[in-house]
Amino acid sequence: MARPLGDPATRPWLITAYVAIGWGLFTITVLHLISSHDPLLDTLSSYINTDRGQGMLGASVLALSVGSMAVLGSLHAARIPLSRTTKILFLTWSLGLATAAVFPASYPESPRPISGQIHLYACMVAFLSVPAIGHTLRAVHPLAKRLTALCVGTLVLFAVSYFLTLFGFPDPLPVGIVQRLALISDVVLMFGLLRIASAESRAGLRRVAEEAGQPAGVQEDDRLVGLIGGGPFDQHRGRLAGVDGVQHHAFGPAEKP
C-alpha cells in the first residue's frame, strides 16, 4: 500500500510544491525543444528572444518561485525548525526568481537597459540564496548538507564561467551548460527538502498513533535511513537519529540496538 504524502497539514504544501516545480521544469524543457538557441553556449535569459520565449520562460521561472515558497510551507508544516534567516533566504530566492521573470534581460537585438540591470541583480540574489538556504538547514539531515555542497560547487563554476565571458577571456566552461547545472542543483535541493519534510511529517503521524496506543510500524524509507548516509532529524533531541548504533524514531523513544 502506498504511503501517504505527509500528514494532512503538510500534504497540501507538498503537492503544491511538486506540481509547481514540475510544471516549471516541463515548460522550460518544451522551450528548449522549440528554440533554436544553443543550450551549451546560450544562457537561459537569452531564450526571451525566441518566439513565445518570454512568456514560456517567465511562466517556468514563476512556477519555480511559487513552488519554492511551497517548499518553505512544507518544512514549516512538518515542524522542522526554521530560523528567521532560512525564511528570509527562501523569500529572496523566490522574489529574485519572480523579479527576473518580470524584468527580462537586455541583449543587442532587444535592448532593455534598465530591465536588464534589474534582471541581472535579481538573478544574482536568487542564485546566491539557495546554497545559503542549504547551509542554514545542514543540521536537519545529511542530505541537505550534501546537496548544499553540490549547489556551492556548481555556483562557483557558473560564476567563473560568467566572469570569464564577461571580460572577454577564453572560457573553458560553456556558460550555458554551467548555468543550467547550477539551476538544476538548486532544484534538486528543493526536492531534497521536500523529501525530508514528507518523511518528518509521516514520523509525526506515527508518534500520534503510538501515543494513542495504536500500532505504528516503522519503515526504513520513512526515516530516510541510508538516504545518502544519514537518518532523520530528531526534534526531541535537536540532533540526528541513529547515532552510535541506536536507531530512534524521529518523534518517539529510542530503541535499544
Distance between the termini: 28 Å
| Structural class based on helices, strands and sheet pairing | mainly alpha
- Rg, rounded, reads 20 Å
> What's the overall geometry?
elongated
**Major β-sheet annotation:** 2 strands, antiparallel
The side-by-side strand order for the widest beta sheet comes to 1-2
Series of H and E elements: HHHHHHEE
Approximately what portion of the residues adopt beta-strand conformation?
Answer: under 5%
Counting DSSP E segments of at least 2 residues, the number of strands comes to: 2
Count of domain modules = 1
> How large is the count of helical segments?
6
The low-confidence runs, each spanning 5 or more residues with pLDDT under 50, are 216-257
- Mean residue pLDDT: 80
Give the helix proportion (percent range). Answer: 55-70%
Pfam family, one: DUF998
Keywords: Membrane, Transmembrane, Transmembrane helix
InterPro entries: DUF998 (IPR009339)
Organism: Amycolatopsis xylanica
